[in-house]
Amino acid sequence: MRQEIVGLGVDAGSTTTKLVGVDGRGERIFDRIEPTRPQLQLQVKGLLAVARASGAKEGTPVVATGYGRKLVEDADKRVTEITCHARGVFRSVHHGGTLIDIGGQDAKAIRFDDKGAVQDFAMNDKCAAGTGRFLEVVAGRLGHDLDEFAHLAANAGETTAISSTCTVFAESEIISLIAQGETIEAIARGLHTSLMGRIAALARSVTVTPPLLLSGGVARSPAAQRYLGEALGLPVEVPEGPQLMGAYGAALMALDIADGRG
Amino acid sequence: MSAKYPRAETSGLKKAQYLLGAKVAGGALLKLDRMKLARKLARPPKPGPFGPPLKSSAWLKELITGHYLKGRFASGARPVAWVTSGAPVEPLIALGFFPIYPENHGAVCGIRRSAEEICEEAESAGYSRDICSYARTDIGSMLSGKTPVGRLPPPDLLVCCTNICQTVLLWYRVLAQHFGCPLVNIDTPFLYGEAQEHQIAFVEKQLEELVRAAEEVSGNRLTEKKLHQVTRYSKQATELWAQIIQMGRHRPAPITAFDQFIHLAPIVEMRGEPFTVDYYGALLEELQERAAQGVGALKEEKIRLVWDNLPVWHKVRWLSEVLAESNATLVASTYTNAWGELTEFIDPENPMRSAALTYLHPILNRGTGHKLSLMKGMVESFEADGVILHSDRSCKPYSIGQVDQRERLTKEAGVPALLLEADHNDPRAFSEEQSRARVEAFLEVVEAKA
Ligand code: SF4
After folding, report:
1. In A10-39, which positions are buried (b, 16+ CB within 10 angstroms) versus exposed (e)?
2. How high is the ipTM of this complex?
3. What are the backbone angles phi and psi of residue B19, rounded to the nearest 5°?
4. Which residue out of B412, B444, B446, B449 would a mutagenesis test of the A interface target, given it has the greatest number of A Cβ atoms within 10 Å?
5. How many other CB atoms sit within 10 Å of the CB of residue A223?
6. Position A255 pLDDT exceeds 70
């Protein structure tokens, strides 16, 4: 028998839109990731239709999170990513800690306790410098996708220091570094250390309580894991499906609604 | 002693115009306006999260509009002084000066959404965007004549007091050069702890120079009787203001810090006047009535927050609505408290020395530890569930130390605290969507903890 989806979570992010379905015990039994399209409302409707075809009944509660959460018409509730990420990660790792989530538009540091309750959080300042977009833009400029770029960085023997933290200025700085003969590997590593240094400062502002957890799209990258760990001097723990944590947390909240607790 | 400061020119004609235009005709029109607004405010509250509006707002509007209306006719009728918000204004009022507070005018520009355009006037004249947006608003307005209040009377005297920041020192020099009028600087040494005797004496000495300048510019002599009286009005008004702030301790709060941001205008720019005392007396009475009847600023109040730093003038309404969506509001703020916490220092029997003491003690002239303990005290006495610290790109002296203050509030006062980046007057340094994301996430954390 096919398992029944009883709660759905949508994470409408700036780069990707995620959908997660959970069963009655809160296990993740369904997920989809798509690049976010301009017609977000239609896109989410389409994703929900797929979920229904995969076992979600009409009327299954939906909780929306992410930048586009207000645009999700079918949502029963809208919750911010801070609460959803903490919920999703806590359910995945079963302990407290300090979670770093690096998304397309922002980076967040969230400290939660052993019951999963958020103690403190901080988000990057109002610019893309400390976000996944920083890497994406520069990688694209050098003709690589994020995965290739991370691979180059993770295996680099040397680091080229990047002084600009501004995404746009870093782009032009890199062009001249290449002209000066720096290798792409060393530059990729330099960019990662620069970004992770910024994120480490963000994390320190909420007081890092180990273990250090990492979620979001960038979390899959071995370079991000390595250089963030180095920046904070702590090992990094990554839950399974780090990109889905926001949607998973939202789906768990939808399950609360289904159970009459939400 | 020969005069050092040029006397302000006045004429009988201008005086007659002032009397007729601002007081008689203007006064009557404003009364009419107030009655209309009062009727509107008395209507049953609209659907939505907000409770009934404060009825006193009609009177407040009359006061503020009246102030700027008088300003339009003041040139040549009364000596005009432009002063910083924390300037010792009592001797000036006693000598018949009409005061203009560029910071208050800046706030009006912010609320009416004209600050950005006016700041750009200053920027295109070479003033950096890193300068406080009040200074840019004022300088931009001075250069272009742009203002939402009609016209500002040029100053006959400038009085700058450094008890709020050092920006004002340079800003007022620019004004002095532009208007070619005398500038009196009052330098208030920073207080790391208790005010020292030599610091008080140092400020008192400068106040004597201020009196001399004000006497010469106005052509009047300062009498002890008049100074006592003005100082007494200042004290009464700040006392009432302090009580008004305390009304926020009621559940639900009959007045929020959002209301206080607006109702603050008289205590800043009409200090030392009898009508300011009357106004705050009436406002307090209204709040006592509301509290007795359980009427709150929000229909349903769940989350009570403390605010630190200047308001984001261009987003006051927006923020109050975002908070109200979660039944949250600001019940107190360090900013509005700044004019209430000075009451104890004001002594009408000893006006000069007490002015020295009072004007040494504004929150921005004291250490960051003072502000931290003030916030902790507010969390406790207002039974607040959290604190929002506005990190104001413009106001460095107010924002310095907030990273540590935030951390210590969460640890020592045990409440969530949020650092919100914005600018009190420059909308270009504010991102609505990002701020909303932070505020909403913060409210979820507060709600989960409460
Ligand atoms: S820097 Fe701060 S204290 Fe100084 S004028 Fe600007 S807002 Fe006021």
Report:
1. bbbbbbbbbbbbbbeebebbbbbbeebeee
2. 0.90
3. -65, -45
4. B444
5. 26
6. yes
Q: Is the CB of B338 under 6 A from ligand 1?
A: no
Shortest CB distance from B437 goes to which of A80, A120, A205? A80
Neighbouring residues of A163: CB distance < 8 A, sequence distance ≥ 6 = A173
Minimum CA–CA partner of B414 in chain A: A119
Kindly state if the Cβ of B165 falls inside 6 Å of ligand 1: yes
CB-based contact (8 Å) between A115 and chain B?
Answer: no
Q: Is B294 helix (H, G, I), strand (E, B) or coil?
A: coil
Chain B, window 398-437: residues with a beta carbon less than 8 angstroms from a chain A beta carbon: 403, 407, 410, 416, 419, 421, 431, 433-434, 437
Phi–psi pair at B222, nearest 5 degrees: -80, 120
Q: Are B249 and B382 in contact (CB under 8 A)?
A: yes
Residue B166 CA, closest ligand 1 atom number: 4
Bridge partners of B332, per DSSP, are B306
* Residue pair A186/A192 in contact by the 8 Å Cβ criterion: no
Instruction: Please give the angle made by the CA atoms of A66, A67 and A72, to the nearest 5 degrees.
Output: 75
Inter-residue contact B135 to B109 (CB < 8 Å): no
B27-52 as b/e: b if 16+ CB within 10 A: eeebeeebeebbeeeeeeeeeebbbb
Contact, B319 vs B278, CB < 8 A?
no
Q: Does A63 touch chain B (CB under 8 A)?
A: no
Among candidates B397, B410, B391, which has minimal Cα distance to B367?
B397
Question: Mean pLDDT for each 10-residue chunk of chain B (450 residues)?
Answer: 88 93 90 92 89 96 95 96 96 97 96 96 97 98 96 97 97 98 97 95 98 97 97 97 98 98 95 97 98 97 98 97 97 96 94 96 95 97 98 96 95 96 95 92 93
Contact call for residues B430 and B312 (beta carbons, < 8 A): yes
Q: Cα-flanking dihedrals φ and ψ of residue B403, to 5°? A: -60, -45
B135 CA distance to ligand 1 middle (Å) = 8
Residue with tokens 């997920």: A31
Taking residue A236's Cβ as centre, other Cβ atoms within 10 Å add up to 18
Q: Which residues of A touch B421 (CB under 8 A)?
A: 125-126
Structure tokens at A168: 């746009």
Query: Among the residues of A54-142, which ranges form H helices?
Result: 81-93, 132-141
Q: CA distances (Å), B148 to each of A216, B26, B85, B145, B384, in order?
A: 47, 17, 20, 10, 36
Buried-state track B304-341, b at ≥16 Cβ within 10 A, e below 16: bbbbbbbbbbbbbeebbebbbebbbbbbbbbbbbbbbb
Summarised one tens digit per residue, pLDDT across range A48-79 is 999 999 989 989 999 999 989 999 999 999 99
Structure tokens belonging to residue A23: 């069963």
In the sheet with A77-78, reading across from the earlier edge strand, the strands are A28-35, A16-22, A7-12, A62-65, A77-78
CA distance B149 to B102: 12
CB nearest B434 (choices: A119, A126, A205): A126
Distance from CA of B203 to the nearest CA of A (A): 39
Q: Is any ligand 1 atom within 6 A of the Cβ of residue B233?
A: no
Smallest CA-to-CA distance from A97 within A14, A195, A192, A203 is with: A203
